[in-house]
Each structure stands twice: as C-alpha cells, then as structure tokens.
Design a protein that fits this description.
Distance between the termini: 67 Å
Number of strands: 4
Strand order of the largest sheet: 1-2
Strand content: 5-15%
Largest sheet: 2 strands, antiparallel
Shape: globular
Order of helices and strands: HHHHHHHHEEHHEEHH
Structural class: mainly alpha
Number of helices: 12
C-alpha cells in the first residue's frame, strides 16, 4: 500500500469569498423579500381578477346560475386561502427570524402552522413588539427622541400601526378559522374544509331538499362539502347518511357576484399587506431604520427637510434618511 501525497489546499481567493457571500443566508433573505415584493404578492390577486371579470361576463349573458359561475366562486375562495397562507408565512418569517432563518420559515409552511398562527390572531396573542418588528418600527427608541414634536409624531404612528394591525389580524383569523369557546380549540372554517376537500377530488355539491330544510340554505347560494353525517328525519324517523354543507363566508341570501366581489376585496387587501411587509423587510436588511424612508415616501410619515431624523442620529432629515 503506497502512501498518497498530501495535496496542498490553495489559498482562498476573492472569487471564493464572493461565491460564499452569495450563499450567505442574509442574501437568501434578500432574494425572498425581493421575490415577494415584486411577484409573489399578486399571484392570487391576478388570477382572482381574471375570474371575477369572467363572472361579470356570465352575469351579463344571463348565465350567473350555471355550474361554471359556481365553480368560479369556489376557485376564488381557494385563492383567498392561498393568499391567507402566504400572509401567515410572511408574518411568521419576520417574527421568527431571530431563531429561524427567513428562507426556512417561508419554504416550510403548512396548513397546521397557518391555522395555529390565525388562532393567535383571533385571541389577540400577536403582541405589540412582534407587530412593530413586522412593520419595521421596533428599533425606534421613541422615548429618547429629543424633539418633542417628533416624539409625539412617531408615537402616534406606532400606536396607530399596532391598533390597525391587531384589528386586521382578528379579521383575517376569523375568516380562516373558527374558535370553539366550549372546547377552547380553533378549528378550520367550513369554507376551508371545502377548500381541502377539493384538493382530494371532491367537487362542489348542489343543494337538495333535505339540506335546504335542515341547514336553511338558499337555493341560489354556493355551498360546499363540510363532512358526512347521519341524520334522522322527524316526519318518518328515517336515518340517512348525508353531506353536511357550509356556505362561503356565512353569506346567506347573497348572490354569487356579491360573494366573489367580497372575496376579491379580501385577496386585494392581503396582497397589499404582503407587498408592504416585504418592502419594509427588504429595506431593513441594510439599515435598521430603513422603513422610515418608505413611510415618508408613502405619506404616512410627514417630516420637514430641516426637522431632526427620528433615528436619533442627531442629523437633519434631509441629510439622513430623507436624502434617500
């Protein structure tokens, strides 16, 4: 057995360093936020807008009650839950990034994780600090801002952000999940169960006399499968296995176009929030106070050129974050 010569390891070059920097998790984060901000945020919105336009064409042609129109409403409902899933992933990616890299949270999402997140939203368990970290305001040391007017201005923005976002999170949570006060457990909403069912090959079902009499649904209302149950009719004591149905967003006596318009509004709002969060998180990678520039550009933060910058740099706004 002959001895092999030890091969010298070549010194690290600038090219090697550049390649390593490109593989840095921080750059993964930059790529993810850029992708969400520029493309991913509107994936569900673009499809929903096309579907809604088609639905309006069907209504003009007098074909609103056709199976195609109902299938459009069902597909839009699925897109709403896909947008909700993405919103939850974006939110969790931010609040968990001190422990788990952003790319790990974003690619390892699941329906159970999303349900647990929205359960916390319903119960108000997403705290102030987490909300401020998502919206890029957690690094601001408001109490140490020497300018009294600026301190009040920033405190107002912080308080308004927390208040509005807590309200929004509760709305999203209730749309996504049902909280059972008796068992103190959060279950999937009937609409979401229907969304899961179609992934496994089930289709939207038509209402029949039994379901209409037991669950009081209107004939024109789109309905979805929730579960199969046994039920006994009172008039002849006959027991049957029937499909229990649920409605879209508990929307009784509302026509299909109205339902889809409401779903489209939900998706549009979620999409705007997803894009805004991604833009803010991207700005924070290079500067912990980068969100100040975005808030100023969007008119949320109004600062005079000669006012002091809220980042406590003791510079004027025009020579600090205002110059960007």
């Amino acid at each position: 057995m002959t001895k092999k010569a030890i091969i010298d390891i070549p010194p690290t070059t600038e090219k090697d360093i550049a390649r390593w920097n490109n593989l840095n998790p921080q750059n993964y984060e930059r790529i993810i936020w850029s992708s969400i901000r520029d493309y991913n945020y509107k994936a569900q919105l673009d499809i929903s807008e096309m579907l809604f336009k088609k639905l309006q064409e069907l209504k003009k042609a007098g074909k609103q009650d056709t199976s195609l129109a109902k299938n459009i409403s069902f597909r839009m409902m699925q897109l709403f839950f896909e947008a909700s899933d993405q919103f939850a992933l974006v939110f969790m990616s931010v609040i968990n990034k001190a422990i788990i890299p952003v790319f790990e949270t974003y690619v390892e999402g699941s329906n159970i994780k999303t349900k647990d997140f929205f359960a916390k939203c319903i119960n108000g368990k997403i705290g102030k600090r987490k909300i401020l970290s998502v919206w890029g305001l957690d690094k601001l040391k408001i109490k140490s801002i020497s300018d009294v007017v600026m301190r009040i201005k920033m405190q107002t923005i912080v308080d308004d952000t927390v208040k509005k976002e807590k309200r929004n999170l509760k709305i999203y949570g209730k749309s996504y999940a049902d909280y059972n006060r008796k068992t103190k457990k959060t279950e999937y909403s009937s609409s979401l169960k229907g969304s899961f069912s179609i992934k496994h090959g089930y289709k939207q079902i038509s209402s029949n006399s039994l379901s209409l009499s037991v669950w009081k649904f209107a004939k024109s209302e789109p309905i979805i499968m929730e579960e199969i149950v046994e039920i006994t009719r009172k008039d002849n004591n006959e027991t049957k296995r029937v499909i229990k149905v649920g409605s879209l967003f508990n929307s009784k006596n509302r026509d299909i176009e109205d339902i889809c318009k409401r779903i489209l509004e939900h998706i549009a709002f979620l999409s705007r929030e997803i894009q805004a969060i991604a833009s803010i998180q991207l700005s924070l990678i290079d500067d912990p106070y980068g969100s100040l520039t975005l808030y100023a550009k969007n008119g949320i933060l109004k600062i005079g050129r000669n006012e002091s910058c809220p980042c406590n740099s003791f510079k004027k706004w025009k020579k600090c974050h205002g110059k960007y």
